[in-house]
Design goal:
Strand order of the largest sheet of chain C: 3-5-1-12-9-10-11
CATH architecture of the largest domain in chain B: Orthogonal Bundle
Largest sheet of chain B: 5 strands, mixed
CATH topology of the largest domain in chain B: DNA polymerase, domain 1
Structural class of chain C: alpha+beta
Largest interface: B-C, 82 and 82 residues
Chains: A alpha+beta (339), B alpha+beta (179), C alpha+beta (850)
CATH class of the largest domain in chain B: Mainly Alpha
CATH class of the largest domain in chain C: Alpha Beta
Structural class of chain B: alpha+beta
Radius of gyration of chain B: 18 Å
Helix content of chain B: 25-40%
Strand content of chain B: 15-25%
CATH architecture of the largest domain in chain C: 2-Layer Sandwich
Order of helices and strands of chain B: EEHEEEHHHHH
Number of domains of chain C: 3
Oligomer: heterotrimer
CATH superfamily of the largest domain in chain B: [2Fe-2S]-binding domain
Helix content of chain C: 25-40%
Number of helices of chain B: 6
Strand order of the largest sheet of chain B: 2-1-5-3-4
Largest sheet of chain C: 7 strands, mixed
Distance between the termini of chain C: 53 Å
Distance between the termini of chain B: 68 Å
Bound molecules: flavin-adenine dinucleotide, iron/sulfur cluster, FE2/S2 (inorganic) cluster
Shape of chain B: elongated
Number of strands of chain C: 34
CATH topology of the largest domain in chain C: Aldehyde Oxidoreductase, domain 4
């Protein structure tokens, strides 16, 4: 049986206790919420910790506040199941509900949290393996080695940003609040990420993500499409999150087009947005905008499916998401694809 | 805070005082400290659903739940499903329809289905699929499991007519051969 | 309504379908043919079933293995000194503690419990460490230092053919080829000369693994009297027993193997594994019970799954679609050890002849050693790959000849009671009825080739053994035996070596006994899968259990019934042949009130004869083939299945969804229909998994930078096993035409229904979008590629381009029955074949007794 390594566990009951622990703790310290990312990583020994601080007893971190039409705040340790089931989220941010509902399996969603999802470690099929396996190929850059097995010529790590909530929250212009013993700050979800497989967050290790702040969604139409092998359990190999605001004539006034799982951070397609803004969502405009996303996505061979095919799917998935927003059918694909 | 934790776990309605290594998951403690080997494991990484138990009524993967965090929560395992010596309708239906073939995924399936029926005692086949989609089974092809949950839901609802359709038991009638 | 209680018949009011008629027993059967709760059902739903990892014993310690991190290397040194000093460590073993080689087949004794001088794949076990806890054992494993001298890695059949040095093994037919076969049945070239059309195909079937939900586990317990008991997750306790005694150097009489309930096998637990031997040795060395439970990645290293097979198929057809000659070439990527590989190699050719008439046939094959986990038997054992090739090939032939694919098959069915060109004796064949059922059920005649672009129907068939005709260690002993003990309470205890792996073998055993003796299922107690207490059954492989255990059980039960009848007849003063055994009573058929409860009948018989016990056994009839290689393929009877699949394909992305599966299976008779359907649905599931997404594939890192060759997807997450969402609706038809060889007429159902599923999907995709994917699993990118190719004016095909040029030498020539052959080869000398008719007995190691 795969077992965890030994560590010390703290279960603070308030944010201030958590801050004190973070400030005083010696040795490698990690936060845990649902543990659905941290524990598998520690069992495979590609993440380690001397001390683990659990956020689960910090009541103030959990819950959804706000109402449809206004700003909505989701506490970091709110479970994905609670996010997906929330009437507010379903009504105001249906694309977020769909994204969160698509994550892994029902049991995982009962444990996993939104904060953990946003902090999810980047993934790579050369990395998310047991220690023995990684020894066989020799450790890569992400573990202090000297080579990236996916792109041996490259100086950087290309591990994949795999959070399904992240691209939607980027498209919606959401922000996250971060608290550390040194103080508090707020940053946009887009700026929370860095396109680097190793240093993928702009967050400091002692910063706790306390909540996600969603702007009012009045008049925003949104969609989220996800490609993966199976209709459950699997991580996405590609996601498309779109949000548009249209004026009374149906002309797009604001657009956000984001892709997930194709780089080490969520990726924005400004080219696609530029095609959309100022135009009505006709099939032709949608196809043109979708085609414009081709250049931003640079998937590599470190997920399921062949790389070439995955790259080609980007356009289809963006197109499908936009067509859904426009009320046009996309017959043969499902938004949350399963073969 | 130490290598070992002492905690009172509420398992299947009873309080158990247990001492266990702090880094051990609920899966390990249920099987190794509590002697409840009914909960199985297939990956220990959250990828198969085999280890599902209920925590406060909700399906949770015991391989990713830290036991030290379980104090004060109510844990239910397959060993707690029976009512005395009577099988729970889900158990009975699984046994009757061969929804348990090798039986290894069965405890996880039963617990997930128990949570589903607690919420919805008349689930459609699609709702059953969605609820159980994180539980892999290599034996059955899932149909008998869906049919067993449907049957058990009927029993739970008190639907006198609940029972498997003829083709569930005998296969479909061969076209052109009457009946 | 409350669900019925254990063992109670679920639907007494639901009469079996009329199609079950035709059996002599029909009117009398009370249990057989009626859905009943499986006898192990209660334990499985309550958590009471004990799988191997659920066993604990006082003083038990835990073992883990250190596995090779290199694909091919000499072991230079092993340093366990640091590990030995670590907290909790009780014992450490290396290869030299168990130097005796072993292998499941007598001809491939090429494994060691722990590697001796060489490792052959990443995951090959080298050191075993036992400690008080599994955590401690794992920590100590990390402290073991092994130095290696790397060797050239062979990752594919092509590389094996090119690489003459180094050799992965120092035995085999040629270089790195483990096995090379060439067989010719009849004047094949004359056949091709007569053909109106000749069709040629190259196809590839990727390897896949069983992925049982239960990870392998074993507990070894040292016992008094110099004995050892191994509780293990195995389909074949008998073979584990043999090999364990061989490697431990102990008399077999001191070794006892108990097959625990198996949490899924599918062929993956029918070999003997390193950890089973090492854990037993560790128990003997430490004097304590020792447990090992593999983690998921290690299960991928045990493997013994589906061989990747490249196939070249060339067939001559007449205008009306009859096959006149066929030449099949297969190349198997065997992985690092022999395992069942010699049998697998023959199986890629053996069953091509049992479905449709094929008067002349040539079969050439190689199996290569490669530095990957060993392949072996998975559901449908090596007949699945050539079946895929044949059924897609026939679809293409039908298209070329302008014949409906269903008719092409129906018109050319092998007649019942045939002897095929390769000397397989085939009895009943329900394939025609199977095809008819799925054709009617799916609306094939109206809908095939008429659905909108993107939607399609595909049809395919299959056939499988109901038990291999020959045992692995060739002998004339029974292959299955049952002992019954009757006691005064009316309880009948049945002892049998069979292993319940989920397929329902316990229920078959209990049903056969209860049916014959007229008692309830609850009146039968089972003791199974224990080499110490139960008579031998060879194990749960080759779909042999229902037939062989069933026949042995019926014989034992009939003998018991005869004894009881003799005593009761005397007591009631009626002729024994007028007595009826039913409803737990024995009574006069003329006046049913004149009788006694079953328990009293037992007492009567005990008074007359003393304590009551009977035995039954079964050995399959001898097959007519007498050539070398004829040992693989014979079976007491063959099952048949036909399948139609409806698929929806998105031509823009290549993504597709299986909308419906219609499957008909020729089962002879369903002993328990509800479990039978479960086997069909489970087979469809596994077949779809292989057709759509499952693959055991490897990563070769850039050669310039690394010699690594690692499993690409060694986890539940990455190895794609379909979930609830991927499983389409299935309509199952059971075709019941009782076969005289089967118990109550039953044939197998555990494996056969998988076979037609894979080609049916490929054929359906062709109907949907007009491209041929000659390779599985069928990924969406393949469909896209083929469509792009077609748009560019190509032939719209995705698949392998060529078969390697291999000199198969002079084939072993066997004249067919039609040509007046007697089952023997005519050129044994010239073909360079050693004498003997069995394939697996040649080169039997000294000291390997039956
Ligand atoms: C089989 C499987 C499939 C999965 N599929 C998907 C999928 O399809 N899509 C997807 O998005 N995810 C998927 N996941 C990943 C994971 O389950 C989710 O992303 C989940 O939301 C992570 O949340 P958690 O609370 O469990 O995180 P944890 O494991 O608790 O934490 C993850 C990381 O975030 C840090 N962290 C957690 N909370 C905070 C906080 N409040 N402040 C600062 N840092 C914090 C932790 O230190 C840790 O490094 C899958 C996981 C598994 C095992
Ligand atoms: S992308 Fe390269 S460096 Fe990053 S985890 Fe994968 S192999 Fe390692
Ligand atoms: S064992 Fe917990 S999900 Fe597989
Ligand atoms: S019954 Fe065997 S895995 Fe589900």
């Amino acid at each position: 049986m795969m077992r965890l390594p030994v560590f010390r566990l703290h279960q603070p009951e308030s944010l201030s206790d958590a801050m004190a622990l973070l400030a005083s703790s010696d040795g490698e310290t990690r936060l845990v919420a649902g543990g659905t990312d941290l524990w598998p990583n520690m069992k495979r020994r590609h993440q380690s910790a001397d001390v683990v601080v659990s956020l689960n007893r910090v009541a103030e971190l959990s819950g959804i506040r706000g109402e449809v039409g206004g700003e909505v705040r989701i506490g970091a340790t709110t479970t994905l199941a609670a996010v997906a089931a929330s009437p507010i989220v379903r009504a105001a941010y249906p694309a977020l509900a769909r994204a969160v509902e698509s994550i892994s399996s029902p049991a995982i969603r009962n444990m996993a949290t939104l904060g953990g999802n946003l902090c999810l470690d980047t993934r790579c099929t050369y990395y998310n393996q047991t220690e023995e396996w990684r020894t066989s190929i020799d450790f890569c850059l992400k573990e202090g080695g000297t080579i990236c097995w996916v792109a041996p010529q490259s100086p950087r790590c290309w591990a994949v940003s795999s959070s399904d909530a992240a691209p939607v929250l980027c498209a919606l212009g959401a922000r996250v609040r971060l608290l550390s013993p040194a103080g508090e700050r707020e940053v946009s979800v887009a700026d929370f990420y860095r396109d680097d497989g190793i240093d993928y967050l702009t967050k400091q290790p002692d910063e706790v993500l306390t909540e996600v702040v969603l702007p009012p969604s009045d008049g925003v139409q949104m969609s989220f499409w996800k490609l993966r092998r199976r209709g459950s359990i699997d991580f996405a190999v590609l996601t498309a999150a779109v949000a548009v605001r249209r004026d009374d004539d149906g002309v797009v006034s604001e657009a956000a087009v984001w892709l997930g799982a194709v780089a080490s951070a969520p990726v924005r397609s400004e080219a696609a947005e530029a095609v959309l803004v100022g135009n009505a969502l006709t099939p032709e405009v949608i196809t043109e905008a979708a085609t414009a996303t081709r250049k931003v996505a640079t998937p590599l061979d470190n997920t399921d499916f062949t790389l070439q095919w995955r790259s080609k799917m980007v356009v289809h998935y963006v197109e499908a998401a936009l067509r859904e927003v426009a009320g046009l059918e996309r017959e043969r694909l499902a938004p949350n694809h399963a073969m | 805070m130490d290598r070992y934790t002492t905690a009172t776990l509420r398992v299947n309605g009873q309080d158990l005082q247990v001492v266990f290594p702090t880094h051990h998951t609920l899966l390990e403690v249920l099987r190794e400290e509590c002697g409840l080997t009914g909960t199985k494991h297939g990956c220990e990484l959250g990828e198969c659903g085999t280890c599902t138990v209920l925590v406060d009524g909700e399906p949770v993967l015991s391989c990713l739940a830290l036991t030290a965090e379980m104090e004060g929560r109510s844990i239910e395992t397959v060993e707690g499903l029976q009512d005395g010596n009577e099988l729970h309708p889900l158990q009975a239906a699984f046994a009757d329809l061969g929804a348990a073939q090798c039986g290894y995924c069965t405890p996880g399936m039963l617990m997930t289905a128990t949570a589903l029926l607690a919420e919805n005692d008349d689930p459609s086949a699609d709702e059953i699929r969605t609820a159980l989609a994180g539980n892999l089974c290599r034996c059955t092809g899932y149909h008998k499991i869906i049919e067993a949950v449907e049957w058990a839901a009927g029993v739970v609802r008190g639907d006198a007519g609940a029972g498997p359709a003829r083709e569930v038991l005998f296969g479909s009638s061969v076209p052109g051969e009457g009946s | 309504m409350t669900p019925p209680r254990p063992g109670q018949v679920i639907a007494p009011d639901q009469a079996p379908p009329d199609s079950a008629a035709g059996s002599t027993h029909e009117d009398d059967l009370r249990i057989v043919g009626t859905p009943f709760r499986r006898v192990d059902g209660w334990a499985k739903v309550t958590g009471q079933t004990r799988f191997a990892d659920d066993m604990t014993f006082p003083r038990m310690i835990h073992m883990r293995l250190v596995r090779s991190t290199l694909p091919h290397a000499f072991i230079q040194s092993i340093d366990t000194s640091k590990a030995e000093e670590m907290a909790g460590v009780v014992g450490v073993l290396t290869g030299k503690d168990m130097p005796e080689p072993f292998g499941i087949l007598p001809v491939s004794q090429d494994e060691h419990a722990l590697c001796l001088e060489k490792v052959r794949f990443v995951g090959d076990p080298v050191v075993a460490v036992a400690a008080l806890t599994e955590d401690q054992a794992a920590d100590a494993c990390s402290a073991v230092k092994i130095e290696y001298e790397p060797l050239t890695t062979i990752s594919s059949v092509d590389e094996a053919l090119e690489t003459h040095e180094p050799l992965i093994h120092d035995y085999g037919d040629e270089g790195n080829l483990h096995k090379k076969i060439s067989l010719q049945f009849g004047a094949v070239e004359d056949g091709f000369a007569e053909a109106d059309e000749i069709l040629e195909d190259v196809m590839f079937y990727e390897g896949s693994t069983h992925l049982p939900m239960e990870q392998h586990a074993a507990v070894a317990v040292p016992e008094g009297g110099g004995r050892i008991t191994l509780y293990t997750s195995t389909q074949t306790p008998h073979y584990v027993h043999k090999v364990l005694a061989q490697v431990l150097g102990m008399p077999a009489s001191r070794v006892r193997v108990i097959a625990c309930s198996v949490g899924g096998g599918f062929g993956g637990k029918s070999d003997i594994f390193n950890h089973e031997i090492a854990v037993a040795k560790m128990a003997l060395v430490t004097g304590r019970p020792v447990k090992i439970c593999l983690n998921r990645e290690e299960v991928f290293y045990c493997h013994r799954g589906r061989h990747p097979v490249l196939m070249h198929l060339r067939t001559g057809f007449t205008k009306d679609g009859a096959m006149v000659a066929q030449h099949l070439k297969t190349a198997l990527d065997g992985g690092a050890y022999g395992s069942y590989g010699v049998a697998s190699t023959y199986y890629t050719g053996a069953l091509q002849t049992v479905t449709y008439g094929l008067p002349r046939y040539r079969f050439d094959s190689i199996r290569a050693f490669t530095n990957k986990p060993p392949c072996g038997p998975k559901r449908g054992h090596a007949t699945v790959q050539p079946r895929f090739a044949l059924e897609v090939h026939l679809d293409k032939a039908a298209q070329r000849l302008g014949i409906d694919p269903a008719d092409l098959r129906l018109n050319n069915l092998l007649p019942p009671d045939s002897i095929t060109a390769n000397y397989l004796k085939v009895g009943s064949i329900g394939l025609g009825a199977c095809i008819q059922a799925v054709v009617d059920g799916s609306g094939w005649r109206e809908r095939f080739q008429s659905l909108p672009h993107g939607r399609g129907l595909g049809l395919a068939c299959g056939s499988y053994l109901t038990g291999a005709g020959l045992p692995i260690h060739w002998n004339h002993l029974p292959q299955s035996a049952v002992q019954l003990k009757l006691d005064r309470t009316g309880t009948v205890a049945a002892y049998c070596g069979e292993a319940e792996i989920g397929q329902g073998s316990d229920s078959v055993l209990a049903a056969c006994v209860a049916e014959v003796l007229g008692i309830g299922l609850d009146d039968v107690l089972l003791c199974v899968g224990d080499t110490g207490l139960t008579p031998v059954d060879l194990g749960s492989y080759s779909s042999r259990v229902t037939l062989m255990v069933g026949r042995a059980a019926i014989q034992a039960a009939e003998r018991a019934r005869d004894r009881l009848a003799e005593a009761v007849a005397e007591k009631l003063d009626v002729p024994a042949d007028r007595l009826v055994f039913a409803e737990s009573r024995v009574f006069d058929s003329g006046s049913p009130e004149n009788g006694m409860p079953f328990a009293e009948a037992v007492q009567q018989a005990e008074e007359k004869f003393g304590a009551l016990a009977t035995t039954g056994s079964y050995a399959p009839p001898r097959a007519p083939g007498r050539y070398r290689g004829s040992g693989v393929g014979p079976s007491p009877t063959y099952s048949y299945s036909a399948c139609v699949i409806e698929v929806e394909v998105d031509p823009e992305t290549g993504l597709y969804r299986v909308e419906h599966v219609w499957i008909a299976h020729d089962i002879g008779r369903a002993i328990n229909p509800v479990l039978t359907i479960g086997q069909v649905e489970g087979s469809v599931y596994m077949g779809l998994g292989e057709a759509m997404m499952e693959e055991q594939v490897f990563r070769r890192l850039p050669k310039s930078r690394s010699s690594a060759l690692v499993h690409k997807v060694p986890s539940m997450l990455e190895y794609k096993s379909p979930t609830f969402h991927e499983m389409p609706p299935v309509t199952t038809y059971l075709i019941e035409d009782p076969d005289p060889e089967g118990p109550f007429g039953a044939k197998e159902v555990g494996q056969g229904p998988l076979l037609p599923v894979i080609p049916a999907l490929a054929n359906a995709i062709f109907d949907a979008v007009g491209v041929r994917i000659d390779q599985v699993p069928i990924g969406p990118h393949m469909i896209r590629k083929a469509l792009e190719d077609k748009e560019a004016g190509g032939d719209g095909r995705y698949g392998p381009k060529s078969f390697p040029d291999i000199d198969f030498g002079v084939p072993l020539m066997v004249p067919t029955p039609d040509e007046g052959g007697d089952g023997r080869a005519t050129n044994t000398e010239e073909a360079g074949v050693r004498k003997g008719s069995g394939t697996m007995t040649d080169g039997v190691r000294k000291g390997s007794k039956p």
